[in-house]
Design a protein that fits this description.
single chain; alpha+beta; GMP Synthetase, Chain A, domain 3; SH3 type barrels; 2 domains
Length: 179
């Protein structure tokens, strides 16, 4: 198993090459890493896997109440690299990338929708009922959470709707730029 070394990467985050032996289980890896990052004050928002430059890519999107900078990404990449060496979740050489969620951050939990109430978001609905009423993908103004349901205002009509988190396939903040 090779150690973690520094290397260039075209991204917002910090990357570390590593080598491991067993197959990856994304949900298990997320469940393993999330509480460990939370203990450091960071929220693991998303864990993605893919391929880049001929290698497996494991990307972590992390957030912190004070924001996430390059130093945070570098520090967390080293910390997570050590944890992953112990867990050994990947059977091939991989690139570990730690990034901030960015201005168009994904919204995954009820807490995210509550925290970003008042912000513009793009929501892709999962349920056919919501799709038939509002369309598959719609831009909305988040209005918080009521009784566990995500409240949002449709900008076209000004009408407020409430949907279950399970009816949302994906959601991301939509940046609003001042002219």
């Amino acid at each position: 198993m090779s150690g973690h070394t520094r290397g260039p990467w075209r991204s917002r985050g910090r990357s570390t090459p590593a080598r491991s032996r067993s197959p990856i289980r994304t949900q298990e890896l997320f469940a393993f890493l999330a509480p460990r990052l939370a203990a450091l004050g960071y929220e693991l928002i998303e864990l993605r896997e893919g391929r880049a430059e001929g290698r497996r890519l494991i990307e972590l999107l992390v957030d912190h109440p004070d924001g996430v900078g390059a130093y945070d990404c570098q520090r967390l990449a080293k910390h997570v690299g050590v944890l992953m060496d112990k867990m050994d979740p990947v059977e091939e050489q991989y690139m570990l990338q730690v990034s901030s969620p960015g201005v168009d951050r994904p919204l995954k939990t009820v807490e995210h929708f509550e925290r970003f109430a008042g912000h513009l978001a793009v929501v892709k609905f999962a349920s056919e009922a919501e799709c038939s009423q509002h369309g598959r993908r719609v831009k909305v103004r988040l209005a918080g959470v009521r009784d566990g349901r995500v409240a949002m205002v449709l900008p076209d009509t000004g009408r407020e709707i409430e949907v279950s988190l399970t009816d949302i396939d994906r959601a991301r903040l939509e940046p609003e730029w001042d002219d």
